[in-house]
Amino acid sequence: MVDQKSPAGTRGAAGPGGAPALRQRLTRRKPIERLVAETQDSEGSGLQRHMGFWQLSMIGIGATLGTGIFVVLGEAVPVAGPAVIVSFVLAGITALFSALAYAEMAGMIPASGSAYSYSYATIGEFMAWVCGWCLMLTYGVSVAAVGVGWGEYINELLQLTTGLSLPGAVLAGPMEGGVINLPAAVVVLLSMFALLAGVRESSRVNAVMVAVKVAILVMFVVIAITAVQDGNFAPFMPMGMAGVSAAGATLFFSYIGFDSVSTASEEAKNPQRDLPRAIMFAMILVTALYCLVAFAAVGALDWTGFVDGETSLAGILTAVTGTPVWAVIFAAGAVLALASVVLVVLYSQTRILYAMSRDGLIPRAFSTLDAKGTPRTNTLITSALIAVLAALVPLGPLADATAIGTLFAFALVNVAVLVLRRRRPDLPRAFRVPGAPVTPVLGVLACAYLMFSMSMSVWAAFLVWLAVGVAVYFAYGMRRSVLESDPEAAEVRS
Length: 494
Known about the structure:
Order of helices and strands: EHHHHHHHHHHHHHHHHHHHHE
Radius of gyration: 22 Å
Structural class: mainly alpha
């Protein structure tokens, strides 16, 4: 296998009409040096560098902390029982392997495309497209899913403070007997306006919301842990390891946040130094809080009592204290907490699309910037589509679809580390995955294990999504790729 950039190397296996062979077109790679140069050459005309370590850390915490606890915990406990704590650990270990891989890749390739860009530089254009297509599913569906959970907490807060509830017609989509999930659509559109104000302003809003969510989760642990009873942990694993694995696969949906850090690469002041640190800091803090909250929740409430989905934690506070005051505070904090997840994950979605558009794989409109350096058209289109999805599709299918797309993309990042360790050992690395190549291989295997723990219906939906993506690539992306019009710039295999 030889990397070649010369015209002869690119056209050596030409097919009819002098076009590069299909295999070379599918496996052509975007040179790392070009990826890095694009992030540097855009100074003054591209995304603006405003964020340091703490802002990047807040992005990771903002996108991660909240989803699994506020939204998915109530659905995971009936699947795993008290062993949901183990499910969080299983998902966290799987995420940690990938977080280590992300930290190494982000330090070398500080590009907004995240896993998509890493795949483009290491595996080839087709797999990069597949990765980007999965990230579209991951981010777009994740925003919609959290929007659905946000609507549940808005209704809970309304009930606790006024005794009233939102009409069922505007609290659920048609698949759940309603008409439209209005709160879910509203939070997506509010986040859209925050992003349009600029990354500096939206990062400040996110930092405030992150502080609130950490505070209310600590409050929950302090209160709930006083009511922990040993009997609530027995039987610990009522559904066996299969239940633990299935819940862990769904809860992996909660760990998307550290990928969001890498999508901010081109808006970081010192990405090589700060990105790896921010990824690992966010990962450790979030996993610790998840496990603490899960332990306190299942210890204070018998696992069979988790029957009302996302509102269980507020109910635990009421049961423990005998007053709804703490539940009101928690529900209000949860509204802000989930809004921060929507804001950051929507931000990440637009940056993935920005990178793919810059490479020509999707329309150029997604990489045009306004005077503030914000991809305005991209943000408007993406937000509108996700708002519609959040308004019409229920939470469960959204969470599962997000998890499988996330796992696939994370597996590719581990593969990218292995490829570059072999192909480009000379590249400077601000962070190195410890224990490589064993650690990245374990990362791939852990992702695969959780993927195969998912139901056939989730796999069917995922494969349909991939089939559509492949069709779009051959019909549009491959022909419009920047490397198609400038083949001499590509790295190819001979």
